[in-house]
Amino acid sequence: MIEIQNLTKKFHSLTALQQISCRIDTGSIYGLVGSNGAGKSTLLRVLAGVYRPDGGTVLIDGTPPFEHPHTKGRIFFVPDFAYFFPQSNMDDIADLYSRLYPGWDAKRYEQLCSIFPISRKDKIINMSKGMQRQVALTTALSTRPDYLLLDEVFDGLDPVIRQLLKRLLSDEVTERQMTILIASHNLRELEDLCDHVGLLHKGGILFDRELDDLKLGIHKIQAILKPMPDISAFNGLDILNYTVRGSLINFVARGSKQEILQKLETFQPIFSEVLPLTLEEVFISEMEVAGYDIDNILS
Amino acid sequence: MTSTTSSANQKHSAANNPFTLYLWSLKQIRGVAILYLAILLIAIPIILLLVLGSVRDTKNYTENLFSAYHEYMGVIFTFAIQPLAILLSLIFTILLFGYMQKKRSVDLFHALPISRTRLFLSRYFAGLSALLAPLCLVSLIAEIVRLAYNIDSVSTSRIMLRLNPTYLPSCMLLIAAAYTFSVFLTVCSGTTFDAVMSILVISFTYPLMTFMGRVCAGLTIPGMMPFRDDGISLGDMLLSPYFGALLATTTFKGDFAYHIWWGFFTIAVFAGALLLYRRRASECAESHFAFPIPKITVRFIATFAAALCCGLLFLLLIGNKSGYFFMGAFLGSICTHLIAEGIYSRGFKQLGKSFLFYGGFVVVFAAMFASFSFGFFGYDTRIPALSEIESANVEISGYRYGFTVNSYSSKQGVPSEALAEVSPRVDDPQKAIDLHQELISLNRLEKYPYIIDHSTSKDITITYQLKNGQTISRYYSSYNFPEGTDYSGLMEKLNAILALPEYYQDSQAIFYFDADAIDSIDVNGENGLTGTHTLTSEQQEALLAALQEDTRDSIPQFDANYGYLYTGSQQELVDTNVETASAYSIYLNISPFVPKNEKLKALVGDYQGRVEISCSNYYNLAPYPKTFALLKDWGWVGQS
């Protein structure tokens, strides 16, 4: 389990993380979203033991990662732009990791090498960005980490590899209770993978929820009403936002689907339907209610 | 949440192997290390064997082999192996520690499940062993070759490699110091560029600063010498191991302080680098610096060196006034400060703040010159107490005194050996103290507070050997005082020294020659060489006697205005034949000889072979009336 308490990280005068607190349970896939510069990568680096926190605590199963090799041996961090040694190929990297990571699984490495379409003997430096990312993921998963920290991991991967990766990650979580923390500014990528999401903005966590709770308790309704009642007529519904275009009303409301539809029926709509919300739409709605300029945050 | 498997446990033990990272780091630099070793192996033994194989002269085969071996080893170590090792210490530093200066690589290294201490030590020792192991190997091979050819290991030539038990460790210590220093500055720097620049700038400017500082002090403080002839001292390289290592062969003195300093320096810098690395923030990669030590130190030293250099340049080129010196110092320092600020801060956004630092520099610089002006904390007036002095000596430049007796061997490659050294002595230290006190009084009266002045040539050296083993030397100018200065006190003390029998007469080489050693003389007139004359044994005796008598009669003395006082017969010569006599000079051609006279025998002791006396054999005949008369009788001079 990852426990973060009042975590602060500063870069000279810039505060990258400001008193962050959250808890990530073992075996969960936590999506960390936010705009560029929100502090996602910084948080991952603190968790990976690369950065030393300036305040607060970060505990991974009760131990801070910074300067604790035993703890770091159970974590693997795949950064946005992974570094590879000049002139090295994937087997060289595997050789190094096999000597350093206690969980290295040679059989798994062979397996992954056969799954990902990359050559083990080619120089990594000559590979495309997507292939380099596959090298990083292959070696990362071969270390059998208990905690996998991924930064913008889907960037540069083609759709087939993305799906393959999502399946591999889900399998690892199911089989080994691996905990995954994925930082991304792309909510759509996380939607079908994560079970928990947190929104970082300007160094603070604005939002931290179970994805199911989030999606099941919020609905988007489209209806044609004649005559169009005043918005105050919908009192009793927890409406997050709404738009009216002529006789067409769109709104997002919290609550059960049945409860919302029952209320709508009292206006005898000509047409009504409940639409599924994408994760992005859920976030936009929630953030607007919280008073944030969401276009700016998720731009 | 347990995922550790049995195979993982096996791997865990591998991860704990302390040599895993070390070997992996070595693997990373193996390309350059192999190239380094290959170059060394070409030099030793391949070229060495070719050089030794080319020695053909069977007559002096052993001597030629000895020369060939030692000359080659001296040259190859001084001009190839050591510079190469120095260059590689920088390259290995960049290859092994450059990772901490790139954000991407630092992510990888600092996320690895190893402590920073272990990571640092593994990489540090990988670099160190890659530097030193090939050096040990080729030295060992060179020693095997030497033994195989039965070449004597003793070499006294200055440039030759001293294959004694302390030389190679000393050389390796310097290279280790240079490498450790590079690692330290790399840990402190944010980028590789800053690290390399800091290493190079401090290596170059620190010796420059100490040298120029000494020159300025010597040009300001009476008693201090601006340019000493004892070569580069340890103080000139205290913070510049690259400079020290580069000159290790030629400056190595093998003294205790030398080893102690570099040993201490290496350990201190290593400990500092390790401590700072453990505290270094990963996010410092690609930033201006991780710790401000190099920025502050390098900028201060470079600014100081530039101030001294430009100040002296202005003093020499524009005018010998302290105002010009300080103007040059200001321009040099401000330019260097601005350049350093632009480079270290990547612009001038913090220029305003940086002037706080410049202000600090100005205060230190001004304080230093104020201390020079007021005698450098009593340096200008320090005279040891008579009870502290073991012996004293005074050197007055421009007068013929002192010589060295060396052994002579006709065998090529067999070096000569100094058998005796005769210097002018002042048996009564009080005489030296009196002269010293007079010079101090004169300087205090006429020049205090002191200002920098490059026209002062220091012609009097007073040296005290103290009973505690220390040596105190002071250097003074006997003239160059303001017009109207009363020299009478100084001349009185100077004449008292010159009149001492042990000072002037006993230190003249002419009293130690055997007459038959003078093979011939070259006589020079106004227009150069007029003839070379071989002497008969009678002529040899007569010439030596005349020279000795003239020398005995020609003790230099000065009047109150520092005018040279001639003796009666000298004055007569000057008065009557001055143009003729002063136009002639002779040069004695003296072959190595076996000493016969008792004075020389006493000097060389048990030595039975031929000797050479190292001294000036040139005599201008103006103050040598008897010699001039003798040569005139023989018709070799005065035939206008």
Describe the structure.
The complex is a heterodimer of chains A (299) and B (640). Chain A has 2 domains: 2-213, Rossmann fold; 217-297, Alpha-Beta Plaits (2-Layer Sandwich). Chain A is 34% helix and 29% strand. Chain A has helices at residues 40-48, 69-72, 90-100, 106-115, 129-142, 159-176, 187-191, 211-216, 257-265, 279-289, 294-297, and strands at 2-11, 14-24, 29-33, 55-60, 75-78, 147-151, 179-184, 196-201, 204-210, 218-224, 238-245, 248-254, 271-275. In chain A, the strands form 3 sheets. Chain A has a 6-stranded mixed beta sheet, with helices on both faces. In chain A, strands 11-12-10-13 form a 4-stranded antiparallel beta sheet, sandwiched between helices. Chain A starts with a strand and ends with a helix. The model of chain A has no long low-confidence stretch (mean pLDDT 88). Chain B has 640 residues and is of the alpha+beta class. Chain B has 4 domains: 32-291, no CATH class; 295-381; 388-507, no CATH class; 509-633, no CATH class. Helix content of chain B is 56%, strand content 10%. In chain B, strand 4 and strand 5 form a beta hairpin. The N and C termini of chain B lie far apart (116 Å). Mean pLDDT of chain B is 84; it is low at 1-14 and 156-165. The A-B interface holds A 11, 26-27, 45, 48-52, 61, 67, 69-77, 79, 81-83, 85, 96, 98-107, 144-146, 176-179 and B 1, 3-5, 7-9, 11-12, 14-15, 17, 20-21, 24, 28, 102, 104-108, 110-116, 118, 281-283.
Key words describing this protein structure:
heterodimer, A: 299 residues, alpha/beta, Rossmann fold, Alpha-Beta Plaits, 2 domains, four-stranded antiparallel beta sheet, 13 strands, B: 640 residues, alpha+beta, three-stranded antiparallel beta sheet, 10% strand, disordered N terminus
Structure described in brief:
By secondary structure, chain A is an alpha/beta fold. Chain A has eleven helices and 13 strands.
Mind sketching the topology for me?
The complex is a heterodimer of chains A (about 300) and B (about 650).
Chain A: E1 2-11, E2 14-24, E3 29-33, H1 40-48, E4 55-60, H2 69-72, E5 75-78, H3 90-100, H4 106-115, H5 129-142, E6 147-151, H6 159-176, E7 179-184, H7 187-191, E8 196-201, E9 204-210, H8 211-216, E10 218-224, E11 238-245, E12 248-254, H9 257-265, E13 271-275, H10 279-289, H11 294-297
Helix pairs in contact in A: 4-5
Chain B: H1 6-15, H2 18-28, H3 30-53, H4 61-97, H5 103-111, H6 116-148, H7 167-188, H8 192-220, H9 241-246, H10 248-251, H11 256-279, H12 293-317, H13 322-344, H14 351-373, E1 389-396, E2 403-407, E3 418-422, H15 429-447, E4 460-466, E5 471-476, H16 488-498, E6 518-525, E7 528-534, H17 537-553, E8 557-558, E9 564-565, H18 568-583, E10 585-590, H19 598-604, E11 611-614, E12 618-620, H20 625-633
Antiparallel strand pairs in B: 1-4, 2-3, 2-11, 4-5, 6-7, 6-10, 8-9, 10-12
